[in-house]
Amino acid sequence: MELETDLDPGVLGRLLPGRAVRSYPAVLSTEADAQGWARAGAASGSVVVADYQASARGRAGLPWQVEQGVGLGFSLVVRPDLPSAREGWLYSVATTALADVIAATGASDVTTEWPDEAHASGERVAAVGVTIELGGATVAWAVVNVLVVDASPPRGPLLARSVEAIERRLDQAPSEVLDDHRRRCSTLGRTVRARLVPMGPSGVQIEGRADRLLADGALVIETPRGSRVAVLPHHLGMLDRVDDPDG
To answer: For residues 88-116, b (16+ Cβ closer than 10 Å) or e, as one string?
Structure first.
């Protein structure tokens, strides 16, 4: 299988100068490749992209469909200065960054769905997943996995803009990112049901109003009894929208 020319290593090298990039015609998953590379010492900013992924995965291992030649799926290695207790913050960073990129294309009504999706005109257009390696009190490295559903060629410029947007948001003050995340997040104010991992008949579920976002990436849910529970992105299996009888 030949690599699509818009993801050719030479093309990507010009778009992402000074950055380590692995580009494949096909791979099991860019996440798996990037994780191995990160463990072997890949520098922050290293990118793995493939035209086809046989087993692409997002948050909580949920399957992704990256349409060959149309979708864009890649993984970015980062080594952030981030305490372990705030590992979920990377979801806020990546989701907000993708919303920035989508909005810059001229798409209308760009919003985010906590914890991992960007929408335009009510449709999912991009999603993220994050794998974390902790090093004691800090995050040693992370792999940010990105899916853009419709990214017709040439995809290289979109890849470059997405990587740069994630890194730019990662360098921003948390208050700036959080303000923009809250402004765009359509989950807030809804009645939701959070099903935590591991999911199953006896799994933990939290239902209530999505109240606010925190600087560790958590969504605070206010239950009907008035208690508030903070749910972290990496503890979430599924978030369901619930019909509100009072709405």
So the answer is: bbbbbbbbbbbbbbbbeeebeebbbbbbb
Which stretches does DSSP call E strand in the chain? 21-27, 47-53, 72-78, 110-113, 117-120, 123-135, 138-148, 191-196, 205-213, 219-222, 228-231, 236-241
Cβ-based neighbours of 225, under 8 Å, separated by 6 or more: none
Q: Which residue has the higher pLDDT, 203 or 88?
A: 88
Sequence-separated (6 or more) residues with CB below 8 Å from residue 34: 42, 46, 48, 75, 76, 77, 143, 145
Paired strand residues for 50: 24, 73
* CA pair distance 185, 188, nearest whole angstrom: 6
Q: Could you give all domains of the chain from N- to C-terminal order, each with its CATH number? A: 5-184 (3.30.930.10), 191-241 (2.30.30)
Residue 168 is inside which H or E element, if any?
helix 156-171
Which tokens belong to 101?
A: 């990129």
Q: Which residue has the higher pLDDT, 247 or 211?
A: 211
Radius of gyration of the CA atoms of the chain, in A: 18
Render pLDDT for 74-125 as a digit per residue (tens, 0 to 9).
Answer: 999 999 999 999 999 999 999 999 999 999 999 999 999 999 999 999 999 9
